[in-house]
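Cross-posting from the modeling subforum.

Setting up a comparison between two proteins and wanted a second pair of eyes on the formatting. Protein 1 (sequence, then structure tokens):
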Amino acid sequence: MNIAKLLSFAAALTLSCAANAAVLTSTTGSNTVDDYSAPGLVSFDLDLQNFSTTTLNFVLEADDLQGPLSFNALVRNLTGADLSRFTFSLQGIRFGAAGSVASDFTTVRAVNAGALAAAIDFSTPVYTEFQFGNVLGNGRDWLLDTAGLRAGDRFTITAAVPEPSSAALVLPMLCMAGLMAARRRRKD
């Protein structure tokens, strides 16, 4: 009986001391998101049932502010349609460093990353999945810069497959984001 009480107490203590992580508060869009975030890590699987935009809303917790947040995502194309380009856009937080992008069935032609967006172009369309960051342990995580942020601050990650007509607008947007980040660094 005493051992059972001791184990119950230990379990309750462990749960009460659990580390806080960035909390996924909501998503918009019709695609499925499975969240695997942990302290210092924003990680999720995104299942694209269609190519509509998906927005993920997060709240920072205290343990996320120890340094940059690692960011990775596994994106699965369940549509059966050509996925030639994909973007992640940020609001309320910035990219601190670019990481890797990998696909088992095609090569990445280009990754254009700025402070607020990353665009991935594939050499041939992706019909299955790709890894953004170190999802499967075979790459480098992307980093999100938490400098100047506090626990309770909110940020948004928007995942989108640009329409062919708007794809030409992504590169200038990334260039502008890069110029704004360079100006911001010069001011600091």
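Protein 2 (same layout):
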Amino acid sequence: MSDTLFRHGKKRFFDNEKFPRGFAKSGDFTLAEEEILTLYGDTMQGLETGLIEPDNAEEKHFIKVLENPSKAKSKLERVWLKYIQLARGRKRFHTLNGRSKPETVEDYSNDGTLVEED
């Protein structure tokens, strides 16, 4: 990412609340995406929250992308949008069983014969 004018963050960016084992180990980000987030995440978060002002056209475009995600063109912008969606969006939950309870309940007596209820 040396071809970008985007500033490196003043510190490495981590999200120990949503990704306690790191971005790449979460299974949601590649190693390259993890590197982008750790190097530039502090700056991107500062621009998003308004703590820092954009220095160049690339950073100004990043702020426009936050308002309209379809305008994302750089890898850096797409990675931040992915981070926002995963960190702040709803987490998908997949169950192993499609139904919550069995449809029929059969009651067996202690000797193994089926007991019918009236």
